[in-house]
Amino acid sequence: MSKPPPPRYKIVERGGRLHTIDTWAEQPPAAPLQRRADPIAPGDALGAPLVAALFRVRDADGRRLLTTSPNWDRKGPRVIALLPPGERRIAALGLLSIGVTLVLLLVALIDLDMLMPICVVAVVLAGAVSSSRTSMVTSWLDSLGQETPR
């Protein structure tokens, strides 16, 4: 009776995780990817998770990337590498949006009749600034970071 051939795969434990090694492969197994924790500045602890969840893509320098659309950016579509002040401004805008949404929801729960005048004023103001809206958004986006090649 002959011995069976050695198995193709070998299971080893490294750092509390099980790894499968293909013994027939010609190249050695790659080291597991190390995830880099996002540094959070002391004043950014509130908005940093929001920005980290919204902008997962990074460039080679580690800056978060924002892709714009021609619908709301006159220079779009383009990719903007966010600088730290730009990340903070987006976090502040996101938190402000969440706060306004919660206030409107609270107003709607308290008295639905109070919500209608607020919506009418918002629609009228949106129509009044629609012509200059894209130029305002474009200049705001320019202040967030540097445009990168696609």
Summary tags:
150 residues; 15% strand; three-stranded antiparallel beta sheet; two-stranded antiparallel ribbon; alpha+beta; 4 helices; 5 strands
Q: How is the biggest beta sheet arranged?
A: 3 strands, antiparallel
Helix content: 40-55%
Rg: 25 Å
**Kindly state the mean pLDDT as a whole number?**
81
Report the count of strand segments. Answer: 5
With strands numbered from the N-terminus, the spatial order across the biggest sheet is 3-4-5
% residues in beta strands = 15-25%
Spatial shape: elongated
What's the total helix number? 4
**Which stretches are poorly predicted, pLDDT < 50 over at least 5 residues?**
none
Notes on the protein architecture:
It is a single chain. With 150 residues, this protein is of the alpha+beta class. It is 43% helix and 15% strand. It is built from four helices and five strands, in the order ββαββαααβ. It has helices at residues 48-54, 84-110, 112-128, 130-142; strands at residues 9-14, 17-22, 65-67, 79-82, 145-148. Strands 3-4-5 form a three-stranded antiparallel sheet. The protein has a two-stranded antiparallel sheet with strand order 1-2. β1 and β2 (17-22) form a beta hairpin. α2 packs across α3 (112-128). The longest helix is centred in the middle third of the chain and has 27 residues, at 84-110. It is elongated. The mean pLDDT is 81.
